[in-house]
TrEMBL record:
Pfam families for this protein: HHH_3
Swiss-Prot/TrEMBL keywords: Membrane, Transmembrane, Transmembrane helix
Name of the protein: Helix-hairpin-helix domain-containing protein
Sequence intervals crossing the membrane: 12-32
Amino acid sequence: MKSHFMFSKEQRNGIFLLIILIIGLQCIYFFVDFQSEDISVDKETLAQFNEEIDSLRLIKLEKSKPRIYPFNPNYITDFKGASLGMSNKEIDRLLIYREQNNWINSTKQFQEVTKISDSLLNQIAPYFKFPEWVSNSKRKQKPINSYSNTSKSFAQKHDLNNATAQQLQKIHGIGVAFSERIIKFRNKFVGGFIDDIQLQDVYGLTPEIIERITNHFTVKTPRQIKKININMATLESLVTVQHIDYDLAHNIIEQRQLREGYKSLEELKKVKDFPVNKIDIIKLYLSLD
């Protein structure tokens, strides 16, 4: 081992010079800046690049915003109204107005009912979509061969379950879209309508238009159904009724147990979450015995 650590004078001088060289190179590496101070930047290219980045950020921000689609202001719910920026009082005014079976047919009327500010109205009014007959209300000419507004007797009226689209279009306010919508809704049920009241379920028909229809049409051949005994009905049978879902059916049965049976179908109005404005349609399917 001793021979590995014994060096001659020349070898020791070589090792010493090597160590000095290594230390010198390390000092040069750490203390000398080899970077050029003159860095050329194309300011025009950099500006274009930054502008593209900013535009991409704006596009991404715009896409992330919630979109508002056209809607009928008559059907604004609590959640929809809050998302539009309406206050609770403004939403309540609208709901109370609608509960009275009234309809809003213009932007001005919407503001009169809800009392929203002009600034908010200007934001949401472009998305209002009123029914066809409201949009075309400026047309003053009466359709050729249209029916008068005078109500006919039962014998003179046409059977609503056999009415054609062409016959319905003779009613003022009924166009191609409405007539086809009425017939499509009627054909959802084998046998058609049970009663004229079911016209309320046709989307877009206002009480005024329904009145014009029933002046000249009525259900003369109602669809035959077996009514459900409300005091014996099961959850499964109740959900077959229009406007009754599982939650409402559960509430109806729970209220029935508390009351020890219903004495009148009007008592259904006391059931939690019951659609009071649809009770006349629901009663078509129910009985007390």
